Amino acid sequence: MSDFTLDQLREQVRGAVYASGDDGYDQARRVYNAMIDRRPRAVVRAANTGDVATAVRYARANDLEIAVRGGSHSVPGFGTVDDGVVIDLGAMRGVRVDPAARTARAEGGATWGDFNAATYPYGLATTGGIISTTGVSGLTLGGGIGYLARGLGLSCDNLVSADVVTADGRILVAGEEENADLFWALRGGGGNFGVVTSLEFQLHPVKDIYGGPMFFSLDDAADVLRFYREFIQDAPEQFGGFPAYQIAPPLPFIPEARHGEPFLAFVSCWAGPMDEGESVLKELRDVAPVVAEHVGPMPYPALNSAFDALVPPGLQHYWKANFVRDLSDEVIAAHLDHGPKVPVVNSTMHIYPINGAVHRVAPDATAFGHREASFATVIAGMWPDPAQNDANIGWVRDYYAATAPHSEEGGYVNFMAADDQNRVAANYGGNYERLRAVKRVYDPDNVFHLNQNIAP
């Protein structure tokens, strides 16, 4: 029997601890992907870094698995575990901005909505995700692809330092000058090395942007995808945008007769001078008729949260992804075949551009291992009805099988499914062996293995 009991854990942490039978336990164990249903021994809703360190020591003293939950968007459900300890950072959501230094420090449970709300009043931002409810920590640790990546680099490229609780309960600072090997690994290596309880970012002058979604008929999808392939190669780096297969939701700017119809959408984000936004998008408008659009000046946080309603908590999730060097005619043909079969309004396929500033970082400068790729493709199956699981998982797998032969072997770790563990080495690319070496230093027993796992 361990001499570190659950009652002692409750006494030693400032945050709440939930165990089976407690009021609030069922809510505390719930995660974003409703396909995942686990019953942890304890959920520790940490109030501070000390609580996290105590929870790690409790789990290790009792030989329990540890799951770490930040924003809770993990598609494979890595933020929970049966009969283990969930360290839930959801109460740690503070963001502090230093406008003079153009930096911001976010706690480990902050979302990009929290982050943008804090930085926007100063006219500052850094690369975040596409959905504002995504966790800052999880996105960044896997790399961090978003609207601003072509101009500012990935989220991890803008990371200045991080506070980390390691497997032995130590609290370390990781940065260029302190624990530099750990800092390198955190920038793309996922949650393999410890619990990140705060992250400091470099900020850049970004406030209002010009952009939004445009919908094109499926008959014009080939022309739009071919245009995108050529345009994005040397488009101004202030432009971030991506094509997507999307069923039209019932929104006022879309003709009512076309609600529920699949389209090839294009979501744009121009972060340069506002008066240049319309001219930048003119080439896209000239490719094919626009059926519907909601494009214009808007606050950057408004675009970052524009699609939140399509992906509320409680959906079923199954995703697949690949990196792509070039949108070849063969891969475009696969998209034209499978994209229009998108099954429900929540599901989608996106092709994110990751050239520009992302390519100017050396492949071994951070753990993000695919600087040679120009695009990151995700086939995101998301739907409300569990009775449709087999059919919708089938759509994702068939789509992936058609595109994979024309793509890189590896994909973006933040988009991987639970059954992608066999792709781990390919996903981390040429940095995998160095990541294993860092893992052996900071987590030799593989305590943090509920992730796209790097075995020591």
UniProtKB/TrEMBL annotation:
Oxidoreductase in keyword set: yes
Family membership noted in the UniProt record: Belongs to the oxygen-dependent FAD-linked oxidoreductase family.
Keyword list, A-Z: FAD, Flavoprotein, Oxidoreductase
Required cofactor(s): FAD
Protein name: FAD/FMN-containing dehydrogenase
Record flagged with keyword Kinase: no
Any one GO molecular-function label of the UniProt entry: FAD binding
PROSITE patterns: FAD_PCMH
Pfam families registered for this protein in UniProt: BBE (PF08031), FAD_binding_4 (PF01565)
Domain FAD-binding PCMH-type: 36-206
Naturally occurring in which organism (per UniProt): Jiangella alba
